[in-house]
Design brief:
Blueprint lengths: L6 E3 L4 H10 L4 E4 L5 H6 L7 E4 L9 E3 L3 E5 L4 H6 L1 H6 L1 H7 L5 H6 L2 H7 L5 H9 L2 E6 L2 E6 H4 E3 L2 E2 L6 E8 L5 E8 L6 E11 L4 E9 L6 E2 L1 H8 L7 H11 L11 H21 L3
Parallel strand pairs: 1-3, 2-3
Antiparallel strand pairs: 4-5, 5-10, 6-7, 6-10, 8-9, 11-12, 12-13, 13-14
Bound molecules: flavin-adenine dinucleotide.
The site of flavin-adenine dinucleotide has 31 residues, from β2, α2, α6, α7 and α8.
Length: 286
């Protein structure tokens, strides 16, 4: 199919893009990589009166070291994150996850701002933003504000942006860890995840002193499993720890049946991935 008729504008600044959204009176949509929006237009599931193309705005694509955090511009492509040595050394969980994002052609065009805004519950970047406690900076008529990732994702394909706000930057705090893992199962490599988990741990004098756990594909948004983190820290570390950890993770999710998998199958996958992820993280030497 072909999209319904729309006007096209190509602003050269974020301010001008926000002005264009205001002028569109709720009928405008911003275009980034187009990898999710264009199929929606072609199927006429989205019918914006005005398409506001962000690709002409200079300075929105960068990966920057800010000491204790890494800043990523909203127009940064998935492929740049996948290939970045800075991401590999400072945000290794993200680096490992990026090759699971769709296929190469899509990674060449898709952007972090588009992926977060699209808010697919089985997409890697929303889950990584939740895992790293990213701050998502947005610009709108009232200026700039930063939204915590756990507030940003409201429901499946729903974020908390006001209609005239645009994502401009995402800051990922660097996690200090001794071990980490990212595990995912999709029906075919590059498909959206059926289930996925990211884990990081830091060792203390006895046992673990910090843990971070996030999952996706098992709820309408990515989930940070804070209770599982606390329970993992309280555990004795022995051969049975990954099995017990898997049970704790499963006690905190309740996926639904859908077109792609039954709830039971998603739970089964997540349980196996949780075991594997914790084993990998514990086996790392730091
Ligand atoms: C076949 C296929 C398989 C895929 N598989 C995966 C996968 O496995 N994992 C995965 O994570 N993704 C997957 N994707 C999605 C892909 O990652 C997209 O690139 C991403 O979801 C959207 O990014 P985009 O830059 O293309 O955004 P667009 O398609 O341009 O926009 C998506 C939405 O976000 C809005 N938007 C875009 N940028 C901004 C901004 N800066 N501020 C506010 N709103 C904005 C748009 O208005 C639109 O509503 C897949 C896509 C396809 C077509």
């Amino acid at each position: 199919m072909k999209p319904a008729k729309f006007d096209y504008v190509s602003p050269s600044t974020v301010d001008a893009a926000v002005e264009a959204l205001i002028a569109a009176k709720g009928e405008g949509k911003v275009l980034a990589g187009g990898q999710s929006l264009l199929p929606l237009l072609n199927f006429r599931m989205a019918r914006p009166a005005v398409l506001i193309d962000l690709n002409g705005i200079k300075g929105l694509s960068y990966i920057e070291d800010r000491g204790d955090r890494i800043a990523v511009g909203a127009l940064t492509r998935h492929r740049e994150l996948e290939r970045s040595p800075l991401i590999a050394s400072r945000l290794p969980v993200m680096s490992a996850a990026m090759r699971h994002v769709a296929h190469l052609a899509i990674r060449n065009r898709g952007t972090i701002g588009g992926s977060l805004s699209h808010a697919d519950p089985a997409a890697e970047l929303p889950m990584l933003a939740t895992f790293y406690e990213a701050g998502i900076s947005v610009q709108g008529p009232a200026g700039r504000r930063t939204i915590a990732s756990e507030e940003f994702f409201v429901d499946a394909l729903t974020n908390c942006l006001q209609p005239e706000e645009i994502v401009v930057e995402v800051e990922f705090p660097i996690l200090k860890h001794d071990g980490w893992a990212f595990e995912e199962v999709a029906r075919r490599f590059g498909d959206f995840a059926l289930a996925s988990i990211a884990v990081s741990i830091r060792r203390g004098l006895s046992g673990l002193e910090a843990a971070r756990i996030a999952v996706m594909g098992v709820a309408d948004t990515p989930l940070r499993l804070r209770k599982a983190e606390e329970e993992l820290l309280a555990m004795e570390l022995d051969d049975q720890t990954p099995d017990r950890f898997s049970e704790i993770v499963l006690s905190q999710v309740s996926p639904n049946d859908d077109l792609h998998a039954s709830a039971g199958y998603r739970r089964h996958l997540l349980g196996q991935l949780a075991k594997r992820a914790l084993r990998t993280a514990l086996a790392m030497k730091g």
